[in-house]
Design brief:
The structure is a homodimer. The first copy, chain A, contains 20 helices and three strands. By secondary structure, chain A is mainly α. In chain A, strands 1-3-2 form a three-stranded mixed β-sheet, with helices on both faces.
């Protein structure tokens, strides 16, 4: 047999793909379908599957097979697949089981307590648990760093954004900090004069669902390969062959559910258009969290909050909810592009959002590198919040450094993906615009084909063929360049 | 550690329980939720899980552990659990893999061809494949017989109805044949004078669903531990902690969906009331197909087709569908108890149904024992159909011996479970009636507690504590006695 080691590795990862299929559907079901009393048995079944997956990924024979496969006669795709197998294998094997367990326990305890401590504004109580989480995350980062030759923080970030380094982020965020605060101030001054008419509800859940389904159809979602359901926290789940989106309905407002569905549809189309012939192998998996987010933000921010798209969507709102003054396209556009600095990241608009991310990055990177300690966080937070967004957070831990779940769960290195995603999206749209000079006119009439064709050719079909920086270079002809994001914001909000 | 072998076995079966949880939810999802393009990936994931389950059940170390556990100090429940483990283990291990595969292939080929051959009335085409299925099923039966000391047919039937033997079935069905044909004739003569008003549709699916949910509630279904959804072929799926019922809606008639939902609710309450402390172990599994069917038929036939229940349900029909003459309780009762001999088993009423089963049993038993050959089936079918139901099936293979999927798939020994279930149900209700003399009056006012309490104490809570004949004896104070079934039919249809 040709390439016996590589072939055997493909079999193992195909088996993992199938186990993960089961785990993914069970997870979707837990969130979208399962009644309360199913929880304990489901948790046990999911844990059993995760244990099986872990045993499979840490099978001792993989080390030798991965080594031997390096010497086999592989083509480019196979070599990329082998690289991704090794990434996945390293992820599972770099850390001793005792550390994985200790970190998982500490994180679970810290996150559980955080759920009440946040409401009580109890930073000191949080700190007691959080010190352990940071200590173990640093140990983890050190072991990953030893294994990969990266710095500690880079080693953590590499799991979410392969190939992107803190040096890149420093350069990019450093640039953004030069112009973002002034831009925010200018937009606020300008929007101070805008009159925005609020839509008047109620908007029945059934009508919102019908609207969402129609928009998903227009955005190319394949309903033979996926579904839209409801869950408390909207997400994109399922498997590439059967993508399960969820949303939730608030009858007082349709905006959250509509924009959320458009956002998740971006994730879904990436999954639905991954190359079928690579599925079941690591090279066929969607590339990185930042690239995934670039798809949801291409749909939600670049496309759906444009003036052209609001013109397209206005008649659909009237069709599903009846006519009202707020559905005037210009008014809708003002509604969907309002900018207001605030304390809470998840409520932030597209302009102020990056400031929230920069702040977190500038705290978590030195924290992991050992340059600051957990007790230094509040003062840094207050200072950066004042500088970046002009907000006073002193003493308000609840809406400050206690607001996110990420750190309590020990997920350091993830935050940059959010803003990288927004920047990639702007860079994709700049490229699409170069390729299709009449893009806005086509969006205005509901012809989104230029967007979908470009994304399919340059992102969706590439799956994990390249590391993130190579993908960005090949797709857009240049490295990640925050000037596109800036130009997008300047144009839309100037 | 006390009982180390037994303890280790419990761990293995707990793992199997969790793998089966995953398999069961995936199966439910495939039928109730999955869009078309999800099929191939799902089939691969389900097959991978089944292979894993098979590897776990055939782990060579189990043989010695089962042997050693026999000598450990087990209590009664543990000993029953060990008995059920051995049954499950024997099921997976008694047959050589080559035979399992050959039979599975032959059955798949025969069943696949049957789907078109049935429509073409093509008995001879069917026979070509069916000979192989029978040959392999006899081999399988012989190996199971060698292993267990039972006869061939008993060995097959024991997988569905543990402890019940052909000698029991011969006695029971022999008795039924003495009185059933005359009863059918008498009921037909009597019902010839009945005037039945048909309900007039359409009955919107949403209203049918609301009615079904209300009836499920009244029948004690726990919606915190289960759901009602739709599928092409209604079934009870999921897991005991989270039971998933399905139905389908035909807007021309609500009867099929309503009675189907009541039927599945009987299955569901068994699952929802299995003793929680035994779940995850074989002793905690619902006992046998016949006993399971006795629960669905207790709900659908004994309870829901009674005159008292139609009185209870009539106002609910009016509530959900509006008023109409057909909803008069006496008319509803006539509608739900109409008897009409026909060719097709799945369309048969409660009185003629056993004749269909007896006919199949009297063919499949000698077929497996080698007393008749596949080519003898049509003549036997014609003859028995004439004797038992007065129907002429000569030359009509389509609506005769080609109508069921069971034989083409090699599932011999299953058919008796259907009628055993109906008989157990009649026997349970006779016992309930002895314990609760005013049962009918209580059913008439929607008080079903005496039924549920008796079933819970005597059947649901017993799970697989006993083999079927012991369970019947303990629950009702006597062995399976077809006189109760006869008395039930005589009373309802006299």
């Amino acid at each position: 047999m040709q390439n016996p080691n590589y072939t055997e590795l493909c079999r193992t990862w195909q088996r993992l793909y199938r186990y993960n299929h089961a785990a993914s559907i069970l997870g979707w079901d837990r969130n979208a379908m399962m009644p309360a009393k199913g929880n304990d048995a489901r948790a046990a079944a999911e844990a059993e599957l995760q244990a099986l997956i872990h045993r499979t990924r840490t099978d001792p024979k993989l080390a030798e097979q991965l080594r031997a496969a390096e010497g086999e006669a592989l083509d480019d795709i196979e070599r990329a697949n082998l690289r991704e197998m090794r990434r996945d294998w390293r992820d599972a094997n770099a850390l001793p089981e005792a550390l994985v367990e200790a970190k998982s326990l500490a994180a679970a305890q810290c996150e559980h307590a955080w759920r009440t401590q946040r409401g009580n504004n109890d930073w000191n109580g949080f700190l007691d648990n959080f010190r352990d989480v940071v200590r173990l995350a640093r140990e983890e980062a050190q072991l990953l760093a030893d294994d990969s030759g990266l710095s500690r923080y880079d080693a953590l970030m590499d799991r979410y954004e392969p190939g992107v380094r803190a040096a890149d982020i420093d350069r990019i965020f450093g640039d953004v900090k030069q112009w973002l605060p002034q831009l925010i101030a200018r937009v606020q001054a300008k929007q101070g004069n805008d009159r925005v008419t609020e839509p008047v509800g109620p908007f029945p859940a059934a009508a919102q669902r019908a609207l969402n389904l129609e928009i998903m159809q227009q955005l190319g979602f394949d309903f033979d390969g996926g579904r839209l359901d409801e869950s408390a926290h909207p997400f994109t789940g399922g498997v590439p062959e059967d993508v399960r989106l969820t949303t939730r309905y608030n009858e007082d407002s349709f905006v959250q559910s509509l924009m959320g569905t458009i956002h998740e549809t971006g994730h879904a189309r990436f999954e639905q258009n991954l190359p079928r012939e690579w599925l079941s192998q690591p090279v066929g998996v969607a590339r990185s969290y930042g690239i995934h987010e670039s798809q949801s933000l291409s749909f939600e921010m670049q496309l759906a909050r444009s003036r052209e798209f609001t013109g397209f969507i206005a008649p659909l709102l009237t069709k599903h909810f009846g006519s009202q003054p707020a559905f005037d396209p210009d008014n809708l556009y003002r509604l969907l592009t309002r900018v207001k600095p605030g304390l809470i990241r998840v409520n932030a608009d597209e302009v102020t959002y990056p400031a929230h991310i920069i702040l977190r990055y500038e705290i978590e990177r030195p924290l992991i590198e050992g340059e600051i300690e957990p007790e230094d966080i509040p003062a840094l937070w207050d200072d950066k919040m004042q500088t970046l967004l002009g907000q006073d957070t002193r003493g308000n831990f609840k809406d400050g450094c206690l607001q996110d779940v990420h750190w309590s769960g020990g997920a350091f290195g993830y935050f940059p993906s959010y803003t990288l995603g927004a920047m990639y999206a702007a860079q994709w749209f700049a490229a699409i615009r170069r390729a299709t000079p009449d893009l806005d006119a086509r969006i205005a009439v509901g012809d989104f084909a230029p967007v979908f064709e470009w994304l399919k050719a340059n992102v969706w079909s590439q799956a994990s063929r390249w590391q993130t920086p190579e993908l960005v270079q090949k797709a857009s002809g240049e490295a990640l360049n925050p000037a596109h994001f800036r130009a997008h914001l300047e144009k839309r909000y100037r």
